[in-house]
Design goal:
The complex is a heterotrimer of chains A (120), B (488) and C (526). Chain A is mainly α and 120 residues long. Chain A has 2 domains: 2-39; 58-113. In chain A, 64% of the residues lie in helices and 2% in strands. Chain A contains 4 helices and 1 strand; from the N terminus they run H-H-H-E-H. The relative contact order of chain A is 0.05. Chain B has one domain (10-486). In chain B, 76% of the residues lie in helices and 1% in strands. Chain B has 19 helices and 3 strands. A two-stranded antiparallel sheet of chain B has the order 2-3. In chain B, a hairpin with a 3-residue loop joins strand 2 and strand 3 (71-72). Chain C has one domain (2-495, 502-507). Helix content of chain C is 73%, strand content 3%. Chain C contains 20 helices and 2 strands. Chain C has a two-stranded antiparallel sheet. In chain C, strand 1 and strand 2 form a beta hairpin. In chain C, helix 5 runs antiparallel to helix 7 (160-193), helix 7 runs antiparallel to helix 9 (210-227) and helix 7 crosses helix 10. Classes of the chains: A mainly alpha (120), B mainly alpha (488), C mainly alpha (526). At the B-C interface, helix 16, helix 17 and helix 19 of B face helix 5, helix 6 and helix 7 of C. Strand 1 (87-88) of chain A pairs parallel with strand 1 (3-4) of chain B.
Chain lengths: 120, 488, 526
């Protein structure tokens, strides 16, 4: 049985080796002329204005989590919408998706009411 | 092309659905009511829990329906539902005044409590690796937040982080084990795995490693040695009412799933896992009891004691026979009352210390018998029951599991259990000594004890006496439940 | 049903006393006195009626009650009473009344809870002496522990917490080992016969293989030896006795120790006759060691209660010796020792308690010359000291003499050693009286003599010990059928694997009749 997994192992090894080569070759053989601009962290082309290790407002995380939540919702709703015509019985499919969305809406209402969407 | 949607017999999971809907209801009600009315949320939650309990009992007609190889409402699940709901109901009663005193956000508190209750119930009902994992995550994530809900307390935050990190680690173990088992059996359904195990003849290493990893994963949840290191810090740091709830509920749920996996799916490999569980059981009770001997903080002591009790209960599972299984079930049921009750007294004792959050050490309990005779009697009953003194429930539970171990040929394990019971008597009695035989200082705040808590404590105390004196009905139920799992 | 009512009567009496003490503390005392006295009275009625009641149960059983309790675990509420149980229940009743009376002025704090514990100890003891289901027996066995634990721990003297913990851990350890043995027997018997039961009568004559039976028997033996106490596991006793309040000491010495002896008689030997036979010589030697060691220790004490406690160790050694000699004489002797020791040691503890109440010390160095100020107490003390040393005419003599006679039939060297007890007990008993009542009154005590209440207690105790010494026949007659039955159970349960030529250590009872037992027909062990 474990022999069946050999191709996966092989694949993994090749992937690791190839990417390692891609990273290591320039570092070893490429010309190095460092300047302060080159060493600066990349921030969309702008000049950095402070150390990178500063604390972000907790609001960022809250937003990020909420975003992911509703993002993932799409993952479920999209395929559902695609095959909706083929569902039998169709009303049941609608009802189940409705319950799903309702629970999510409840969550949104909760976040809203508790002030999770206010920035200050 | 037509995709026919599967039909659901919602009655099978009606208790779980009721609890979930109640959780959402609490959340909605929390949004619309004013700050001073938050106390009513508890009653909403309590009604939901009681309704779910009634439904569980009503569903129990011996037909053992299942939902698509995912969830089952067999006797096993329903019996454990009752134990979990008892823990939830008691926890709600104990929280009535405590949440306000400590300043927990009540809406979130009761919602999460109900969500994790639902997770526990689903875990008891799960008959598929997928549902087991989903249920475990529902209950765990809710508990992580509950543990850290007391944001003003540093220890609470530390406990939550510790529990979360180690819990995630345990989930990883569990998933890895599931993946290996799936790889070998080709199905996640426990019935399918059972069939694969029966067909396989000599078990493959993959299956055994998978089972071992799953035991480790569940071992974290029920606090078996050597996966117990989070327990004392988390139990001590968490709000006491949460500790009361999780020390019972999470254990019941973990044992529920472990029992299903070991006894049902891997029932034919008993010879391979029984000795592992027996050794873990002996280790767990010994380490738990020895560590508990040295504790002066009652919450911490009870945390170690709960580790020891996981060991006793595991002895029933390690026995591997019908008697051991029903013994395990009876043990968990009895444990729900006595352990939750003991934490309730700590909640009550904290009341006399005002908002400073004391009332947890042995010294705080000194002379409690003179100040609050009723509480002291109840606490003495809980301690004696935990120590396994007849005629209380803890005694019969121990008799049951140790008897099963002897019958299963694990006499050495029973001897271990008995020796451990003697050791444990020492630290349980220290509490009684402190309450009855030492002079206490007067209460810092001469406050009355909340009526709801009194009712809960009285119920738990009466229950452990009744379970000890008249265990027939519950023993019968536990027997039926065990047979539902083991078949015939 | 009367048997269950007896227990419930005492239990409810305890609850009532606790409840009523919320209004008036003294009500707890009256309630307790009423309930213990009625309990004693109903037992006396049972005793008097017992010849007629004999049809109620099979064989030697006077009353039998078997109710279903937890049927699917094979646990029944099975209570039964025979002569042996009846005698011990009577002892419970007598000492119960005495303890309530003697603590009339003591226990000023939490009086209700005190009497609650007192009555629950008695109830649990009553249960122990009647339970015929092993789980039920274990339940009562442990149940007497908790109230006793509170009794010593709350109303005891300066070092009480240490004493209670030691007492609890010792007895709990022994008890749990017994529980293991009970479980082992349950399954061993169940595997052999298919009948899973904890019922005593069904387990009698079990066919557990000897190798297993020895281990199971040892579990029981440890539990009973701790309670008895036999010598290596006796160390909890002096501490517990010394620190306990008077009522606790009386109950402990007079009744709780008897539970250990009763367990040996009722359960250990009949259930495991062959295994018990194997350890009989060792157990008899332990008994003798207990007799002598207890006596020497008693002589060396400076604490009055500790001294009396060690005399208990000595006297209970006789019981161990008698039980394991296992012939009619020795068994009858053991029963009489149990009763007589209950009365005489109970009386000595009451005496010690009364003295302590007056001079607030148990230190023998501070006593002396008390006879001149308390002549009546002195006379009573002297009488019970004489009983303790085995003066003919008093109860202890009858019992110890019968045990020695029986022991001579079983094992001569051991019996010879045991006879030394009469010498050493004379030494410590007289030394005790000398140090308490005679000699110079160094501290110049001027104390009130016994009050009417105390005198009443003394008169009853004195009458009992004298009657038992002069006319032990009613006691012997009551115990005899029960002991005969026990010997039959044991003989029936013994395997016939004994080599030809060697008499079974207890087989002789089958042909040795009770009426001729005095002639020494019992061959005993060679």
């Amino acid at each position: 049985m474990p022999a069946d997994y050999l191709p996966i192992l092989f694949f993994a090894v090749v992937a690791v080796v190839l990417s390692a080569i891609a990273v290591l070759m320039p570092a070893l053989f490429g010309p190095k002329r460092p300047t302060s601009v080159k060493l600066a962290p990349y921030e969309s082309g702008k000049l950095p204005i402070g150390p990178a290790r500063r604390r972000f407002s907790i609001q960022y995380y809250l937003y990020a989590v909420l975003f992911i939540l509703f993002d993932v919702e799409i993952v479920f709703l999209f395929p559902w919408a695609v095959v909706f015509r083929d569902l039998a019985p169709r009303w049941l499919g609608l009802a189940e998706a409705a319950v799903f969305v309702l629970i999510l809406l409840l969550g949104l209402a909760y976040v809203w009411k508790k002030g999770g969407l206010e920035w200050e | 092309m037509e995709i026919s949607l599967p039909t659901f017999d919602f009655l099978v999971v009606a208790p779980e659905i009721v609890v979930l809907i109640t959780a959402l209801l609490v959340m909605v009600v929390d949004m619309v009511i004013g700050r001073e009315q938050k106390g009513r949320l508890a009653w909403v939650a309590l009604v939901g829990v009681l309704a779910a309990g009634a439904l569980s009992y009503y569903l129990w007609d011996g037909s053992d329906p299942a939902l698509h190889d995912m969830l089952a409402a067999d006797g096993y699940a329903l019996f454990l539902n009752l134990a979990i709901l008892v823990a939830a109901a008691l926890a709600i009663l104990f929280s009535l005044e405590y949440t306000g005193r400590v300043g927990l956000a009540q809406g979130e508190y009761y919602t999460l409590l109900l969500l994790s209750t639902a997770g526990m119930m689903l875990m008891a009902a799960a008959i598929n690796l997928m549902t087991i994992f989903l249920a475990l995550e529902i209950l765990s994530i809710s508990l992580y937040v509950l543990v850290g809900l007391n944001r003003a307390e540093r220890r609470s935050a530390e406990a939550a982080l510790k529990y979360f990190v180690l819990g995630a680690f345990a989930s990883g173990f569990l998933l890895y084990g599931m993946a290996l088992i799936y790889g070998q059996a080709g199905t996640t359904s426990l019935a399918g795995i059972r069939a694969a195990v029966q067909a396989g003849g000599e078990p493959s290493a993959l299956l055994l490693v998978g089972l071992g990893l799953m035991i480790a994963g569940f071992g974290f949840k029920v606090a078996l040695v050597p996966f117990q290191m989070w327990t004392p810090d988390v139990y001590q740091g968490a709000p006491t009412s949460v500790t009361a709830f999780m020390s019972v509920g999470a254990k019941v749920a973990g044992f529920a799933a472990l029992g299903r996996v070991a006894l049902y799916a891997f029932g034919d490999l008993q010879g391979d896992w029984r000795w592992v569980l027996a050794v873990l059981s002996a280790l767990t009770m010994t380490v738990g009891n020895l560590a508990a001997l040295r504790q002066a903080n009652l919450k911490r002591m009870l945390a170690y004691s709960s580790i020891a009790h996981a060991g006793y209960a595991l002895a029933g599972l390690a026995a591997g026979n019908a008697q051991g299984t029903s013994g395990l079930l009876f043990y968990l049921f009895a444990y729900a009352f006595m352990n939750a009750g003991a934490f309730a007294i700590i909640i009550a004792a904290g009341r006399f210390e005002g908002a400073t959050g004391g009332g947890e050490t042995l010294d705080d309990f000194a002379g409690l018998a003179a100040r609050k005779p009723g509480l002291a009697v109840a606490m003495a009953l809980f301690m004696l029951s935990l120590a396994g003194v007849p005629p209380l429930a803890g005694f019969l539970a121990k008799l049951y599991v140790f008897g099963a171990a002897v019958r299963g040929g694990l006499i050495w394990l029973a001897v271990f259990g008995v020796v451990n019971s003697v050791i444990s008597a020492y630290y349980y009695l220290r509490v009684v000594v402190s309450m009855y035989m030492r002079e206490g200082r007067p209460a810092a705040v001469p406050a009355p004890v909340c009526a709801g808590l009194q009712v809960g404590v009285a119920l738990a105390a009466v229950a452990i006496v009744l379970l000890g004196l008249w265990p027939g009905p519950i023993v019968d139920l536990a027997r039926v439940a065990a047979l539902a799992l083991l078949g015939g | 049903m009367i048997l269950l009512w007896l227990i419930l009567w005492l239990l409810s009496g305890g609850l009532l006393a606790w409840l009523l003490s919320r209004w008036r503390a003294v009500w707890a005392r009256w309630v307790s006195l009423f309930f213990t006295a009625t309990y004693l009275a109903s037992l006396v009625v049972i005793w008097i009626l017992s010849p007629e009641a004999e049809e109620a149960g099979p064989g030697s059983w006077l009353i039998d009650l078997n109710l279903s309790w937890i049927p699917n675990l094979g646990i029944n509420l099975h209570l039964a009473l025979d002569g042996l149980g009846l005698l011990l229940l009577l002892l419970v009743g007598v000492l119960g009344v005495m303890t309530v009376a003697t603590s009339w002025t003591g226990a000023q704090e939490r009086t209700g809870f005190f009497h609650f514990n007192l009555l629950w100890i008695l109830a649990a003891l009553a249960g122990v002496f009647m339970a015929m289901d092993l789980v039920l027996f274990y339940l009562f066995w442990e149940m007497m522990l908790i109230p006793l634990y509170f009794l010593i721990g709350i109303w005891g003297y300066e070092n009480r917490v240490y004493a209670t913990l030691k007492f609890f851990i010792f007895t709990q350890a022994g008890g749990l080992l017994m529980l293991l043995s009970i479980l082992g027997l349950y399954f061993a018997h169940g595997n052999n016969t298919g009948v899973y039961t904890f019922d005593y009568f069904q387990l009698l004559g079990n066919t557990v293989p000897l190798a297993t039976a020895i281990w199971l028997m040892l579990g029981f033996f440890v539990a009973f030896a701790v309670k008895l106490p036999a010598v290596p596991v006796h160390t909890w006793l002096p501490d517990a006795h010394t620190q306990a309040p008077t009522a606790g000491s009386v109950d402990l010495a007079g009744l709780v120790l008897k539970a250990g002896a009763y367990g040996l008689l009722r359960f250990l030997v009949p259930l495991f006759p062959e295994a018990a036979g194997r350890i009989a010589p060792a157990a008899m030697i332990l008994g003798v060691i207990g007799i002598l060691y207890g006596a020497f220790q008693a002589y060396g004490q400076t604490d009055l209660k500790r001294m009396v406690a060690y005399t208990s160790v000595s006297h209970m050694g006789f019981v161990l010796l008698g039980v394991f000699a296992w012939n009619p004489l020795a068994l009858q002797g053991a029963v009489v020792v149990m009763i007589a020791h209950g009365i005489s040691t109970g009386a000595l503890f009451i005496l010690a308690g009364d003295i302590q109440e007056r001079i607030h010390s148990r230190d023998l160095e501070r006593m002396g010359g008390l006879w001149s100020t308390m002549p009546r107490m002195g006379a009573v003390g002297l009488l019970f000291a004489l009983a303790s040393l085995g003066l003919p005419g008093l109860g202890n003599f009858v019992g110890e003499f019968l045990v020695l006679l029986g022991a001579f039939q079983a094992n001569v060297p051991i019996a010879v050693l045991a006879t030394l007890a009469f010498v050493v007990s004379a030494v410590y008993s007289l030394a005790m009286i000398q140090r308490v009542f005679f000699g110079p009154n160094r501290e110049g005590w001027d104390l009130p003599d016994a009050s009417p209440r105390e005198m009443g207690i003394w008169v009853v105790m004195v009458v009992l010990i004298v009657v038992l010494g002069l006319y032990p026949r009613p006691v012997l007659d009551t115990a005899r059928p029960a002991l005969e039955a026990l010997q039959e159970y044991a003989a029936a349960g013994e395997h016939v694997e004994v080599e030809v030529g060697e008499a079974s250590w207890l087989g002789s009872t089958a042909h040795g009749s009770w009426d001729t037992a005095v002639d020494g027909v019992d061959g005993g062990r060679p």
